[in-house]
Every structure is written in structure tokens, then in C-alpha cells.
TrEMBL record:
Entry EC no(s): 3.2.1.55
Pathway(s) it belongs to: Glycan metabolism; L-arabinan degradation
UniProt keyword Glycoprotein, yes or no: yes
Annotated keywords: Glycoprotein, Hydrolase, Signal
Signal peptide: 1-25
Species this protein is from: Kalmanozyma brasiliensis (strain GHG001) (Yeast)
Region (Disordered): 612-662
Family membership noted in the UniProt record: Belongs to the glycosyl hydrolase 51 family.
Keyword Glycoprotein: yes
Domain Alpha-L-arabinofuranosidase C-terminal, residue spans: 485-673
Protein name: non-reducing end alpha-L-arabinofuranosidase
Any one GO BP annotation for this protein: arabinan catabolic process
Catalytic activity: Hydrolysis of terminal non-reducing alpha-L-arabinofuranoside residues in alpha-L-arabinosides
Superkingdom field: Eukaryota
């Protein structure tokens, strides 16, 4: 997602290639009457009463790992930051080692006399080679504290604590410690337990449940382990983990995972994108290091976020989440290219292809050694998915030189031979990618660029199914930036007009759902901690205790919750580029008509929907959903989380809608609005 995709689809389709200078600053001026309600409709839609095509479109979600502290520090519920002392001091560009040098970053002593040191001796495991020795004045208390990921929000739910400890001298000893959650000045204790740590020279795992008696009013809190009495020889500690209750038995943070569940994604692309590739070849997503006991997961250098990829939200954890959401994974497979521009040479690709095959056997086999390994990690049933994507954005940078030349074909041939049932999605069709059965295209734009793009969507080539698994409005378009990524118009949070442009795109994809198979907003997660964010805007912003649903989130919600199965062709009386009203009509699994209408104008607009083929719309059992706002630049933020909140009704038409005796629907769309109406078709 590192640069603008004037993508294959865009190139193939756009009736007018995005030309920044020609993009007008405000939403296009409109020709229709402002006082529409009392006059003739701005647009009349003649909608076929019978479907013409099956829609394959299913809403996607993309779990882009380790950007914006959105997975480690976000979706992954782990509270402790740098839990195994792996964070690099500075992991940017120049520090590409696959295994970190480690640090005590984010840890502090609980007393002035505490001394913390990082020790490579007596490693817990080869994957977690460093640990912390807590020592200091032998006669004073000593201990170690962690502030979480940009703070800890203390709730009164039970938290599962585990850590490993040993005696630093190797001599058997008992160290009584207090373990708890405290305000960061220790003036307040939310929960505290005394534990006699019976230590030896061997690492032992200690576990307990901490249930705070009161919740915190802010996030300025720490977790700490400190000796109840004198420090003496202190203690050595590693892999300190504190988990609040998680989503449905997964390792995911409840509010974030629930928000994703609520949009009802059909597909979940995971893991990655850039995080799949790694900063360099040694730091690629080697799935074997992202399964099994946490103590055997070394993690690796992250691609966007500073610190460390713990891989705690690993391959199975991600697959489990997709399954809990009722979605199918679209599994990203590393294709031998990493972000520093290096590609694995053709002659050395073998082990990476074998690793991909092993990964697929591990996830899909019903019996045999891979299935047994999976079972040993707690999952006997194979996972179920039909699509994988080979690589990530292989049109970008130097990737294009080798993808079509040998990487795509090498992975495709090997995988197709052993897993003929899988559809292989290419990450680009450029540069001679032969025989691809599907492509993943990405698009980041201004609102008007996206509105313009939708003009060409009906004439999309029907050759290759399109998965648009990264799409977002990222720039207001108000400052005419020549670079929408770095110009002043770059959005901090999704806006109303941006979300409406995304809705127009989704409407275009859905009414062309015979060829657009999916679309996913990217990125989803943004930790709002200081310096935690590398990419804006994002669908869900959060801190340790709070989450905000953006306007873009609500549009995804509407498309996920009111899906269609079949497409009903519609001819609008006015082209969308002059009406600035966007549409999709289809029937759902109950055979009801689902109408999605986006009014991107500053004034209300009346539209009429006439259904042909002798069919009539009926209002009994009608449902509606609507999002609207007065200010197109309005965004939901942590300080104003509910600036724009949609309304839904499970009985009846929305305000301003009525059915005619001829079975047609007349509806006044509010300014800057997206509306979904479901009506039985008789
Ligand atoms: C339904 O109406 C459309 C035009 O509105 C027409 O093209 C189509 O043939 C009709 N289908 C049937 C089954 O009558
Ligand atoms: C620590 O305690 C021991 C035993 O009580 C005592 O002998 C020693 O002087 C104390 N050391 C300091 C620095 O206070
Ligand atoms: C992936 O990691 C495993 C475990 O560390 C290692 O044995 C294997 O060689 C790695 N695969 C490749 C292709 O580097
Ligand atoms: C952006 O471009 C439009 C059309 O060329 C122009 O009318 C507008 O003043 C420009 N806005 C800014 C902020 O430069
Ligand atoms: C955020 O990053 C800036 C620039 O690197 C730095 O000056 C600042 O101290 C950082 N703030 C925090 C709270 O880490
Ligand atoms: C609207 O789109 C149509 C079809 O793509 C095109 O022919 C026409 O020129 C466009 N009109 C405007 C005003 O952009």
C-alpha cells in the first residue's frame, strides 16, 4: 500500500484517467433542482423485476498486520508491550536483522533502587533469547513494570496472567512478589495478588487470574511484579502476558473484533500486505514461526510499526478469527519478494514454494503429519477456504521485474498441482502474469477520483474476476495535491464525503458483482497512541480503552449487512456523473429487492424506483438503513465519536419514502446520505 495504484482496473476502465488538476475541489456542482421533494424526481430508475445475473460480490475485510500498532497493540488483546524483551531500539530501515537485538523498552523498575538488565544467559528458548533480570539494592523491594500499549485501561473483568521466571543465581529460592495493576504513580491499586515465586535455575511458568475490583478512569496505568520484601537476588523473567477476556475464545480484543464481526465480512484477507513480505527476505512471514507455543515464536522485524512483530496473532489465530466472523480466509502467500526490493532468485525459490505447500497442507489436510501437527496445536478440523493470493502488490517497485518473469508461475504451478481446488489470486496482471483466474487490485484516492472511477465500472472487462482488497479515500481532494499521499489534503480520519465515495464504489462493484468478487477497506485498525500511527485514515481508531467507528466503517457495515445474491439491472434516467447519485439494485436471499442509493449532493434529492416485469414493491416487511450528515468533511474521532451515526429500522420505509399504487417507490434522499432499503417484491 505504499504508493498510488493507477491500477490495472483503473487503467483498463477509467473513462477519464485521474487527472489531479481537473479534479474539482468541491463535490461536483449539480444540475438538479434543490427543492426536489415537491417536484419531479431527480432520477428515475427503471429496475428489472427479475434478476439478470448472479452476484459473486462478498464484502471483504483485510487484516493488515502490524501497521498503526493495529494488531500487536490492537486487535491482539495482549496488554503487555515488549513482553519478551525483543523490541529493537530503532528498527527502521537500517536495522533489518531477522531476530532482534532486544531491549528493555517500555519496562521500568518499580523502585528507585531497582536495577533492570537484559540477559542473553539461560535463554527461555531459542526463539526468545533475551530475558530481564530484576535486581538492585538487596534490602529494598525491587520489581518491574509495564505501561501497556500506550496505556492500560483497567476493567473489572478477569485478566489471565502468565509469565516465566527463574532464579538469577540458579539457586533454589522463594521470592514473595506482589502482582497487580496500578495507576502509574502507584497511588491507586486496582488489583493485587501475593504470589510466593518458588524459583530454581529452570524456567517455570506462573499463571493466575487478576480481577480488578474497580475500573480505571484513564489509561495511565501499569502492570507490575514487585517483591513484597527485600529484593535479595531478585528474579529473572520472560514472556509476560496479560490478557483481558477476549472475543469468542480467540486472542482478539473484544470491542475491535466485535466491530469487525458486525460488518459481516464474507472474506478476510490475511496476513499482511507489506508485513507478509517483510523488510527484507530474512524477515518474510515464515508461517512456521507463527504457529504453536508462544515461547517458540521468535517474531520478526515489523514493516511499519516500530518495535517487534510478536506473531502472537499468528496464522491459526487469524484463521480462527476469520472463522468466528463467519468469513472465509483469503490467505496471502509470501511470493519471494521483500520490501527492500530484493527478490529470491529463481534458482533459490524452491524452499519458499515448499513452505507455501506445507502451509496449505497444514491448514487444509484432513489427515497425515501436517494435520497431526495442526491437531497438536489444538485444531483437528481443517480450515475451509477457497482462495489464496500469491504475493502482495507485485506491480510495485522492483517486484514487477520478477513476478511475471518467474515467481507467479512457479508458485501457481506448484500449488495448482497439489491444490487444484484453490483459486489463485494474482497480485497484479501486469508484466505477463499468464492465466490468472483472479486479481487483487488496490486503490487509494480522493472522493472525486473515486466518484469518477465509478463511471466506468459498468464497462469493466469480464475477463478476470476482480478482488479489490485494499480501497480507501485517503485525501480530501480540497487542496489539489499532486501527491495525494503526502499532500496537505491527506485525511486523518474518514470523512462523510469520503465514505459516500466508497459507498458509490461499493454500489458499482455490487451491481457488477458478476466480475467484482470482493472489496475491502484498508487499513482497518489505528492505535491513536503518540506516534503509533503510520497510515491514515483508518476504519476503526482506538486507544487502550476506547474505539471509534468511522463513517467508512458504517458504509462497510451497510454493504455487509444488506448483501444481494442476484443483480437487477437498472437504467437511471440521469447519468451518475450529472446527478451525483449512485445506485445498486439486487435481490437478497429472500428474494426482496435491496436498493442502495448514495446522494453525494449538498441538497436533498428525490428519486423514483420503478420495477418492471410486472413486479411490484411492497412495504410490508420493508427495512431501512441510512447515514447522513450536513458537513461533508465531518469525521468521527475519539473526541467526537458519534458525530455521524446511521439509523436503521427493521420495520417500514425510511422517512421521506412512500410506495405508489403502481408499486413504485419514491424517496427523498437527505443531503450527503447513503440509504439502503429492502422491500419485498411481489
Ligand atoms: C424484465 O425486464 C427487462 C427490462 O426492464 C427485460 O430486459 C427483461 O427481458 C425482462 N425479463 C423477463 C423475464 O421478463
Ligand atoms: C542489608 O541487610 C543486612 C541484613 O539485615 C545488613 O547486614 C546490611 O547492612 C544491610 N545493607 C544495607 C546496605 O543496608
Ligand atoms: C522457516 O522457518 C523455519 C523455522 O525457523 C526454518 O526451518 C525454515 O528454513 C524457514 N524457511 C525458509 C524457506 O527459510
Ligand atoms: C483546486 O483546483 C480547482 C480547479 O482547478 C480550483 O478552482 C481551486 O481553487 C483549487 N483549490 C486550491 C486550494 O488550490
Ligand atoms: C514522536 O516522534 C517524534 C519525532 O520522532 C518525537 O520527537 C516525539 O518525542 C515522539 N513522541 C512520543 C510521545 O514518543
Ligand atoms: C458522464 O459519463 C459518460 C459515460 O462515461 C460520458 O460519456 C460523459 O461525457 C460524462 N459526462 C460528464 C459531464 O462528465
Amino acid at each position: 500500500m505504499k504508493s498510488l495504484s493507477l491500477s490495472w482496473v483503473t487503467m483498463a476502465l477509467a473513462t477519464s484517467i485521474f487527472s489531479i488538476s481537473s479534479v474539482s475541489a468541491a463535490p461536483a456542482a449539480t444540475t438538479s433542482n434543490a427543492n426536489a421533494a415537491s417536484t419531479s424526481p431527480a432520477v428515475t430508475y427503471n429496475v428489472a423485476g427479475k434478476p439478470s445475473r448472479v452476484s459473486h460480490f462478498g464484502l471483504g475485510a483485510f487484516i493488515e498486520t502490524n501497521i498503526n500498532s493495529g494488531t500487536d497493540g490492537g486487535l491482539y488483546a495482549e496488554i503487555i508491550r515488549n513482553r519478551a524483551f525483543q523490541d529493537n531500539v530503532n528498527n527502521q530501515a537500517n536495522q533489518n536483522d531477522a531476530l532482534g537485538k532486544g531491549s528493555l523498552l517500555h519496562w521500568s523498575g518499580t523502585s528507585q533502587s531497582t536495577k533492570l538488565s537484559l540477559s542473553p544467559d539461560n535463554a527461555l528458548s531459542s526463539a526468545l533469547p533475551q530475558s530481564a533480570v530484576v535486581s538492585g539494592d538487596r534490602n529494598q523491594s525491587c520489581g518491574i513494570a509495564n505501561p501497556g500499549w500506550y496505556g492500560i485501561s483497567v476493567t473489572t473483568q478477569p485478566h489471565q496472567l502468565s509469565f516465566y521466571a527463574r532464579s538469577p543465581t540458579g539457586q533454589a529460592t522463594t521470592v514473595p512478589v506482589k502482582i497487580g495493576l496500578y495507576s502509574n504513580d502507584y497511588s491507586k491499586t486496582y488489583t493485587e495478588q501475593t504470589m510466593p515465586l518458588k524459583l530454581t535455575g529452570e524456567w517455570q511458568k506462573f499463571e493466575t487470574t487478576l480481577t480488578p475490583s474497580q475500573a480505571s478512569s484513564n489509561n495511565n496505568n501499569v502492570f507490575a511484579i514487585k517483591t513484597t520484601g527485600a529484593c535479595r537476588d531478585g528474579f529473572q523473567v520472560n514472556l509476560v502476558s496479560l490478557l483481558p477476556p477476549t472475543y469468542e475464545g480467540t486472542v482478539a480484543r473484544q470491542d475491535l473484533a466485535q466491530a469487525l464481526a458486525d460488518i459481516k465480512p464474507v472474506y478476510v484477507r490475511l496476513p499482511g500486505g507489506n508485513d507478509l513480505e517483510g523488510n527484507n527476505i530474512p524477515s518474510w512471514f515464515n508461517w512456521t514461526n507463527a504457529v504453536g507455543d508462544l515461547k517458540n515464536r521468535p517474531g520478526r522485524t515489523p514493516t511499519w510499526t516500530s518495535g517487534w512483530n510478536t506473531e502472537g496473532l499468528g496464522l491459526m489465530e487469524l484463521m480462527d478469527l476469520a472463522e468466528k466472523w463467519g468469513a472465509q480466509a483469503v490467505l496471502g502467500i509470501y511470493a519471494g519478494y521483500s520490501l527492500n526490493g530484493e527478490a529470491v532468485p529463481k534458482s533459490q525459490l524452491g524452499p519458499y514454494i515448499q513452505s507455501a505447500l506445507n502451509q496449505l497442507h497444514f491448514l487444509l489436510d484432513t489427515s497425515g503429519s501436517w494435520a497431526e501437527l495442526r491437531s497438536s496445536y489444538g485444531r483437528s478440523e481443517p480450515y475451509k477456504f477457497d482462495q489464496i493470493e500469491i504475493g502482495n502488490e507485485d506491480w510495485l517497485g522492483a517486484a514487477i521485474n520478477t513476478y511475471g518473469a518467474y515467481r507467479w508461475a512457479a508458485f501457481r504451478d506448484a500449488i495448482a498441482k497439489e491444490f487444484p481446488q484453490l483459486t489463485l489470486i494474482a497480485s497484479t496482471l501486469k508484466n505477463g502474469v499468464e492465466g490468472a483466474k483472479a486479481v487483487d487490485d488496490h486503490m487509494y484516492s480522493t472522493p472525486n477520483q473515486l466518484f469518477e472511477f465509478t463511471e466506468g465500472m459498468d464497462s469493466t472487462s469480464r475477463d478476470v474476476p476482480i478482488w479489490e482488497l485494499e480501497i480507501a479515500v485517503i485525501n480530501s481532494g480540497l487542496t489539489n495535491d499532486t501527491d495525494i499521499y503526502s499532500g496537505p489534503g491527506r485525511l486523518q480520519h474518514p470523512t462523510l464525503i469520503g465514505a459516500l465515495a466508497e459507498a458509490a464504489f461499493l454500489a458499482g462493484a455490487e451491481r457488477n458483482g458478476d466480475i467484482f468478487y470482493s472489496a475491502a477497506y484498508a487499513p482497518i485498525f489505528q492505535n491513536e497512541g503518540p506516534n503509533a500511527t503510520q497510515w491514515t485514515p483508518d476504519m476503526l481508531s482506538f486507544n487502550a480503552g476506547q474505539m471509534v467507528k468511522s463513517t467508512s466503517y458504517y458504509i462497510q457495515y451497510a454493504w455487509g449487512n444488506y448483501p444481494i445474491k442476484q443483480i437487477h439491472d437498472a437504467s437511471p434516467s440521469t447519468p451518475t456523473n450529472s446527478s451525483h447519485i449512485y445506485h445498486s439494485f439486487g435481490s437478497n436471499s429472500q428474494g426482496a429487492l435491496v436498493a442502495k442509493l448514495v446522494n453525494a449532493n449538498a441538497e436533498q434529492r428525490t428519486v423514483k424506483v420503478q420495477v418492471g416485469n410486472g413486479s411490484k414493491l411492497s412495504s410490508s416487511g420493508a427495512t431501512s438503513w441510512q447515514m447522513q450528515g450536513k458537513n461533508p468533511q465531518q469525521a468521527n474521532t475519539l473526541s467526537n465519536p458519534n458525530a455521524i451515526v446511521p439509523q436503521s429500522s427493521s420495520s417500514g420505509l425510511p422517512k421521506g419514502a412512500s410506495l405508489g399504487s403502481d408499486g413504485s417507490l419514491t424517496m427523498t434522499l437527505p443531503p450527503y446520505s447513503a440509504t439502503v432499503v429492502t422491500l419485498p417484491l411481489a
